[in-house]
Design goal:
- There is one protein chain.
- This protein folds into two domains: 132 residues, Beta Barrel (OB fold (Dihydrolipoamide Acetyltransferase, E2P)), CATH 2.40.50.90; 61 residues, no CATH class.
- It has five helices and 14 strands.
- The protein is globular, with a radius of gyration of 17 Å.
Length: 217
């Protein structure tokens, strides 16, 4: 099974400062500056294609809402990210700010991300404070993103060639890989004769030159 965040690798302190035009939002807890991805440490937002349960018994697009909210937070602001650990997918695990706003904290405070307690307790107390209001991801019992990823991976691996469920797609946007929790996964096909392929892990896809999809483009 795919690891939740991959092997953590310590490194020297990494700091990046970027203008709003240089920052791309990948999903509700990941930003990119150039080719480097920054994973907001200590939190886990719904995946881009994930739905959550609502108080009225229906579902809402929590992953899309979390991604949109993060995009609005960084819009028009300079962004600074600081971290000293990389995961196995070469993402810097970082605390990021857009202007005066702590993005990690803001996502939890908006009830659009969980405290990722398996790796950090930094936002556990804040999570407990906001959960009682019953807003966002807390309005009804719903699946946490780490369980969502595991379930989607297991189901896709059971039918993918050699149990390798990541789809490597080539389009006008370049070589892009889609993990089973990607919102574009079901409508993406793999044409082997066109150079597209299946991958067994995100690390394998990255090493082969494919990149993750970017929200909105």
């Amino acid at each position: 099974m795919r690891p939740l965040l991959g092997l953590l690798v310590f490194m020297m302190l990494s700091t990046v400062s970027a203008t709003a035009d240089e920052v791309r939002v990948i999903d509700g807890d990941t930003l990119a500056v150039g080719e480097q991805h920054y994973r907001l440490s200590g939190i886990d937002a719904p995946e881009a294609g994930q739905n959550c349960n609502a108080a009225n018994g229906r579902e809402w697009q929590c992953g899309d809402e979390a991604t949109r909210y993060l995009s609005n937070l960084v819009s028009g602001k300079n962004v600074t990210c600081i971290g000293n650990v990389r995961d196995d997918y070469d993402r810097v695990l970082a605390t990021c700010r857009a202007g005066d706003v702590d993005l990690n904290e803001a996502m939890v405070e908006a009830s659009l991300a969980w405290a990722f307690r398996r790796y950090s307790m930094a936002y556990a107390e804040l999570e407990e404070q906001v959960a009682g209001a019953g807003l966002g991801i807390w309005q009804a019992p719903t699946q946490a993103p780490w369980d969502y990823r595991a379930d989607r991976w297991s189901a896709a691996a059971s039918v993918a060639p050699e149990g390798c469920p990541i789809k490597g797609n080539i389009s006008r946007n370049g070589q892009i890989y889609h993990a089973p929790w990607s919102p574009w996964y079901e409508r993406t096909s793999v044409n082997l004769s066109a150079g597209e392929r299946w991958f067994c892990s995100e690390r394998e896809a990255l090493d082969a030159g494919w990149r993750a999809p970017i929200w909105g483009g």
